[in-house]
């Protein structure tokens, strides 16, 4: 996109980056593969895939359709793309949702296990010597979202795998509990021990706290669990060097602040492999291009240094050959020195106050699928979802930013003066 102010300034930063010594490492994060084994190319768009429901798969091609979950060829293509792009990562994070969006009746336990084992198999086959940290999604059980028992695991000395499906408001099995499966007290204990041992921790999970940025007032967690999650991060932020989640299928992030308002932690929401257009009422055209993502980090401190997202333009892939491309590098696109909480806060403030950064962020949010303009309501939804995980503070943000949109930043009359200010950032 044309965005002179945004793209101008990269040169100076490279000096800074070279000057800072760190011990580079990198890892993959993939999520929401949602393999649909029924996908097949037929002349009747309504019979292409079970996951499209009653919607026709109007542009079905061999790599998929925006109305459908992933065909095997797309799964295969994404795992081999990982191998081509970064064949020897330090590890792979795989945060769940493996099965298609179909009614429970259409997907027995056997089918769920078959899907999970096929995906596990291809990842292990292509990356035989790489450690994979999996977290289960809400679609990885049968019946969906009704988890009977905890699946807690501490798969590594610095990896905390949370089963946040327990907090999902559709999970009837846990809604009356104070601390389902004792996971919060367990996590509190693990993080306390980590602090005592001077360890650093990454948290991975599937369903994130806070709100869905594509639909106003849409949280996933029950309110009490959302609060407990925030408390956990605020208490232990000094040992938590990153949080990596999925479920949205979009590319976004969530900020965590202390009581003084300083940024203390970031949750990265990585885009899904499935292009499936969400059927959530109130979201228009909520599909995405398939995305996979490399995190660059410091192996000594676990500081997240950068995020590089790669994607498949599904339309183009179907028309010609499937070719995965780099979509963007975080530090270049948002002109920040790294992916620390302070830098992500800076990126968020740019997105909140500059039309140009907002539009860039918005296009990345759907992995360059939806290239329409992010208007002022859209701005408020995305900015408040990223800024406020807490339910009350989110509500307050909607009011405040909604008013800001009326009085200032986005009024065309004022925007020239404002963009001059941002040009100096
Ligand atoms: C293609 O998928 C449709 C819908 O799931 C199914 O009815 C049909 O039998 C499938 N055809 C083949 C050849 O698998
Ligand atoms: C998977 O992708 C690889 C690399 O492009 C290709 O060699 C292989 O034939 C594919 N397998 C299937 C089943 O599509
Ligand atoms: C859980 O941890 C145990 C050992 O700590 C390991 O053997 C097992 O594979 C892990 N399971 C998962 C799902 O990561
Ligand atoms: C994806 O490919 C289609 C078809 O070639 C093209 O019209 C569209 O602009 C591409 N999108 C991006 C973000 O490059
Ligand atoms: Zn999903
Ligand atoms: Zn999910």
Q: Which SSEs are present, and which pair or pack?
A:
Layout: H1 4-7, H2 10-19, E1 24-30, H3 72-85, E2 92-94, H4 109-126, E3 132-134, E4 153-156, E5 159-161, H5 183-196, E6 201-204, H6 223-236, E7 240-245, E8 252-257, E9 263-269, E10 291-298, E11 304-312, H7 314-319, E12 324-329, H8 330-334, H9 341-353, H10 355-365, H11 376-387, H12 391-407, H13 412-423
Parallel strand pairs: 1-2, 2-3, 5-6, 6-7, 7-9
Antiparallel strand pairs: 1-10, 4-5, 8-9, 10-11, 11-12
Helix pairs in contact: 3-4, 5-6, 9-10, 9-11, 11-12
Residues 97, 137-139, 206-207, 247 line the site of one zinc ion.
Q: Any idea of the CATH topology? A: Purple Acid Phosphatase, chain A, domain 2
Q: How are strands sequenced across the largest beta sheet?
A: 3-2-1-10-11-12
Strand fraction equals: 15-25%
How confident overall, as mean pLDDT? Answer: 89
DSSP helix fraction: 25-40%
* Helix/strand order: HHEHEHEEEHEHEEEEEHEHHHHHH
Describe the sheet with the most strands: 6 strands, mixed
Which of globular, elongated, flat, extended, rod-shaped describes the shape?
A: globular
* SSE class: alpha/beta
Describe the structure.
Helix 3 runs parallel beside helix 4, helix 9 runs antiparallel to helix 11 and helix 11 runs antiparallel to helix 12. The protein is globular, with a radius of gyration of 21 Å. It has one domain: Purple Acid Phosphatase, chain A, domain 2, CATH 3.60.21. A hairpin with a 5-residue loop joins strand 10 and strand 11. The protein is built from 13 helices and twelve strands. The structure holds 2-acetamido-2-deoxy-beta-D-glucopyranose (4 copies) and zinc ion (2 copies). One zinc ion (ZN) binds next to loops.
